[in-house]
């Protein structure tokens, strides 16, 4: 019997078809990828590199290490020694004298100050006198201030002698130096950063819930009205979306402040007395109201696009089978809107957690969020601490973003 | 939305309550934007409606806060308003300078974001694109990562991103950099930052438009003898243009409204409208802010209308393409 298995298929130039297809597909892949390359490079340079740089700064501070060559050498030579000897004090005095010449005792003191408060003036004071100090240096320094003998100061200096440190993360999670040189949790009054993170998450959660409660009815209305009417009403949702954030914030200040529109109206209607005006802005209330207004469209749009796809016949079927309108809503309609609720809530929460402008302008003293604390430390030149706080916020947002991508898919994000 | 005939009285009551609730929420959305318009015509330096305004007394209204926009920073604001006065206003008035900066930065940021974003979106919507999900997530992240983090990172990086003022690079790019040759405090730095922030919007709108794009049109065009360039300009571009333009408008608005990055990386030479408003709100809040706000509301209404018209056109075009 003749062999009927066909010869392998080839292209006109004699290559096997399979190989030709594979190489053509690889080429197509490359061509698609090459189109993305310019933007990818741009984003890496303008976005990822700066953020990487910031992360590096959160682990690095050379204000102390760059100014204490002699002391660093002593620390290297005596690993694990907690009780400084005369040689250590001699090295410290040498470095302090050099700092006075270089005008850098402030830098060194600032670095130590993060872990042992009150050391900026200690360093500045000792550096001024360092040149005149006579051996024994230990007694000379202790005569300047007894603080120089404290183990926790020496533990802090040993750690700061290396430019790389996790101290800023310790500070950013509210831990402080204990008397024995280790780290301990701060007392409840001192836990400002953790408290602020918790507050940021709680406020963002509150804004998300209020947004959901407000967005649900109007998204439902928009989804059930005929197209011509709903696209008209949609403009009312999209206009705030397109209006400058600062415009909306300033107009809310005009509305909510003590001499503002609402208070004037209430006084005019004799609901409030002239001296009973309510302060609704420059505090937490103001932050929540304005953030809700600004983030509401981000909740309405995903909800609307999901509700649009829910066939009204399901609700009618449920009713005809004897369900009450409440049961129909709870058991039939609401479960179908869950993808929209998840998408909208996650998006609003992510955006709220990192909010800066609104709390800064209308937050007053108690409406500030973690972003504002980062800005505060940037303005005070506490760059490494600001970077550490920013890195912690970044991790939180990245987790939420990953969740969003897993649950909803980032390519489903729509605008208007 | 009509009430079904079988609705019980209780359901009828609920139905009308529901409509009232919806009206109230729409009022909440839109009232803050509308209220600035009459307030900006206030004759008094107050942030609220005066008695005269409420009784529609013409003397309660004035254009004085719009006039401030011309005179603030003007060297001789009280002089006669002749050609020279206007020329000086154009050169020296704080708000006019801010507007020029905003438009200039916004324009170039938009061009940069739109060109790079559209090309990348074309690659991303090809079915054979490798690692699409990862790359897409990366390109959209400037929209998700809090602006303060981006601004902090950029301010660290831009302070280091310098060329030496003696080098050849400075002769080439010095005009776009700060006097020290750095990206910090330079127009170029702000343009790059704003382009980065605008890119996610371009990617989202253009890939959304391309998702309805029939890829076989490209093959059809190639089989009819068009080279890739002709295919791009004659076939792809006309079909995705509405998406590209709305992406560009989104990118422009992002830049035009951006203040945090400007606060961190820009110098006094890059004073933009949002930054000027920011200063105004933080320091002494005067109705002049509201007159700028009114102008910006009108701008946003125009932009929104354009985008809506483009969206409808895009949907019409997509309806023509067979699926």
Report on the structure:
The complex is a heterodimer of chains A (416) and B (323). Chain A is mostly helical. Helix content of chain A is 69%, strand content 1%. Chain A contains 18 helices and 2 strands. Chain A has a two-stranded antiparallel ribbon. The mean pLDDT of chain A is 87. Chain B has one domain: MetI-like (MetI-like fold). The model of chain B has no long low-confidence stretch (mean pLDDT 86). Chain B is an all-alpha fold. Chain B has helices spanning 9-39, 51-54, 64-71, 83-92, 94-124, 132-144, 147-160, 168-173, 187-211, 216-223, 228-256, 260-265, 273-282, 287-320. Chain B starts with 8 loop residues before the first helix and ends with a helix. At the A-B interface, helix 1, helix 9, helix 10, helix 11 and helix 12 of A face helix 1, helix 5, helix 6, helix 7 and helix 9 of B.
Reading the helices and strands of chain A in chain order gives: HHHHHHHHEEHHHHHHHHHH
Portion of residues in beta strands of chain A equals: under 5%
Poorly predicted runs of 5 or more residues of chain B: none
Number of DSSP E strands of chain B: 0
Report the biggest beta sheet of chain B as strand number plus sense, adding barrel if it closes: none
Mean pLDDT over the residues of chain A: 87
Task: Please report the number of helical segments of chain B.
Answer: 14
What's the architecture of chain B in CATH terms? Orthogonal Bundle
- Alpha-beta content class of chain B: mainly alpha
Radius of gyration of chain B: 25 Å
